[in-house]
Design brief:
Length: 165
């Protein structure tokens, strides 16, 4: 009996209890170069040079996350040579090319919906889609994944938002 009640509670917890309409848009960028390296003051300053070259308004992609000990950079592959030149003397932790970035842009009452980011991430994990990078801002969530998983991930996320929200 306790297991049956627990199963019922789990089913209920999978549904959102959101307070308003959540509008979203899903976009996908291909040919992403993903690199991670040890953080230092100079490399962070050098990466500022990318902001003059990368033009998101013209379709370029750039996500830079500076952690306590490392830096994560996902950028359109056409800027790979510039990135490699900027980080040539750095301690590289990981590089991956030909990746895909799937971005969910939220609007509406998104911020009043607890667990939505968790649920989207969980749905991808259940479908055995490995997330190389997760980049989050106030209204955007970006997953950097392998190219071969991109169509499946897009379908999973689209069906999640169509069914759950």
């Amino acid at each position: 009996m306790a297991i049956r009640r627990y199963a019922d509670d789990l089913r209920k917890s999978d549904k959102f209890n959101h307070k308003g309409k959540i509008d979203y848009e899903i976009s996908m960028k291909t040919n992403i170069y993903d690199v991670n390296f040890v953080r230092n003051y100079q490399v962070v300053n050098n990466l500022a040079l990318l902001y003059d070259k990368v033009k998101p308004g013209k379709g370029d992609f750039l996500n830079l996350s500076v952690g306590s000990h490392e830096v994560s950079l996902a950028v359109s592959e056409k800027f790979r040579s510039e990135v490699d030149e900027l980080i040539k003397n750095e301690e590289i932790l990981h590089t991956k090319e030909n990746m895909v970035a799937i971005t969910i842009s939220f609007s509406g009452d998104f911020l009043k919906t607890p667990g939505i980011l968790y649920m989207a991430t969980r749905k991808l994990a259940w479908e055995n889609i490995n997330l190389t990078e997760i980049v989050s801002t106030m209204n955007e969530l970006t997953f950097v994944i392998e190219k071969e998983d991109s169509i499946k991930a897009l379908d999973v996320l689209q069906s999640f938002f169509d069914e759950e929200i």
